[in-house]
Amino acid sequence: MKWVKFRIKTVTDAEDIIISSLYDLGLEGAQIEDKVPLTALEKEQMFVDILPDGPEDDGVAYLNFFVEEKENGTLELLGEPVTQEEILARVGEELESLRMFCEIGEGTITVDETEDIDWINNWKQYFHQFYIDDILVIPSWEDIKPQDSDKIVLHIDPGTAFGTGMHDTTQLCIRQLRKYITPQTELLDVGTGSGILAILSLMFGAKHAVGTDLDICAVEAVAQNCDANGIDKSKFDLLIGNIISDKAVQDQVGYEKYDIVVANILADVLVPLTPVIVNQLKPGGIYITSGIIDDKEETVTEAVKAAGLELVGVTYQGEWVSVQARKPM
Q: Does residue 62 contact residue 33 with C-beta atoms inside 8 Å?
């Protein structure tokens, strides 16, 4: 497929109203580019392994809208054929109307035609097989080499819910999971994403795993990765919801039920999560955390202690930290 991209230069304060206004014209699925720092909620909903520092917010935003170009070269909005010039005219009129009562910045529009790109699969060129100790992590579009026949093989495709094992925080968790998992382990993976930690735990011999996540995209990603690794679906349950604030999710997850709770999430989320998750842990259960940049170590260790957990270990890789704790018997 080919797409025509309409790119609007505006200001961050006008993003929502422009998107809403252009939605009525038939332009949907806006891609937003700005330098606004993430809110606490957005950080909580991140599923990537790393959250880099961004540039300073300059108030400028770019909104990109994509319209599919049909095989005959025509465009379509709201089921009606339109030309590129007609779309430009309609968008321009809408922006000028908005300018009458709010600041929209430059409000300039540029147009580009994309190449014929597979938007879903194009990113695959950047993800290749790699090792975590004796574990081979490999995507579905690559083959296992003969020399890797003795490795534990994890087939993982990141999809839209990220977590591939490449980042230090995930590897820190994996090594701790191997240390504590037994054939009787009931595991809870908070912020499971692609399901990598829970799936590996089951491969290491855990009895059962429950994952929680905020994003519905995790459902398909987990299902695909379970299938790819031959995981019995009865051994991995996934719940969508916020375990920190939603009592119904806490009830569904269960109390004093888990031998291990693992959470590879940002430190700012671990702080409110920890006093909640204590209730899910069995007495003597292990709490494994990561996603902690080194200057946040004390923040998390203090949260662990304040929740009544016993600190049993702190491990490091690169600039990242894993904190492990135990619930008293």
A: yes
Most distant pair of Cα atoms in the chain: their distance = 71
What's domain 161-326's architecture? 3-Layer(aba) Sandwich (3.40)
Quick one: pLDDT band at residue 216, thresholds 50, 70, 90? confident
299 neighbors 181 (Cβ within 8 angstroms): no
Which CATH number applies to 2-113: 2.102.10.10, 3.90.180.10, 3.40.50.1000, 3.30.70.120?
3.30.70.120
Q: In what order do the strands lie in the sheet with 130-132?
A: 130-132, 135-138, 152-155
User: What are 60-98's pLDDT values in tens digits?
Assistant: 899 988 888 887 778 888 888 888 899 999 999 999 989
Residue 245, token pair as written in the block: 């604030």
Res 164: pLDDT: 63
DSSP 83-137: -HHHHHHHHHHHHHHHHTTS--TT-EEEEEEPPS--TTTGGGGG---EEETTEEE
Query: Among residues 270, 265, 294, 282, which one has the least CA distance to residue 326?
Result: 282
Mean per-residue pLDDT over the chain, rounded: 85
Selection from 304, 219, 123 nearest residue 313 by Cα: 304
Q: Where are the domains of the chain?
A: 2-113, 161-326
Tell me which DSSP letter residue 318 carries: T
From 107, 102, 100, 99, select the one nearest 10 (Cα to Cα): 107
Q: Which residues contact 67 (CB under 8 A, 6 or more apart)?
A: 3, 4, 6, 27, 75, 76, 77, 87
Percent of the chain with pLDDT over 70: 86
- The dihedrals phi and psi of 262, each to the nearest 5 degrees, come to -120, 140
* Predicted confidence band of residue 299 (pLDDT cuts 50, 70, 90): very high
Residue 129's CB is within 10 A of a number of other CB atoms, namely 18
CA separation for the pair 125, 319 (Å, rounded): 27
pLDDT in the model for residue 160: 43
